[in-house]
Amino acid sequence: MSESIAALETQLAFLEDTVANLDAALVAQQRALLELQEQVRLLHQQLTEQGARIDEAGSTVDPPPPHY
Description:
The chain has 68 residues and is mainly alpha-helical.
């Protein structure tokens, strides 16, 4: 009886350690995901701004001369 209790306690300790490790991995992944989402947001903003600048610059450029 005492051996089975010791075995269960060992399994419980292993499972608690595994859960703690998985929790730490989940926290790290969540942080990485938030960072990537912020980078995507910034890239989207930059592309939008560049597109607006290109549109503005394109409207002021003279058409190319005709080729002979």
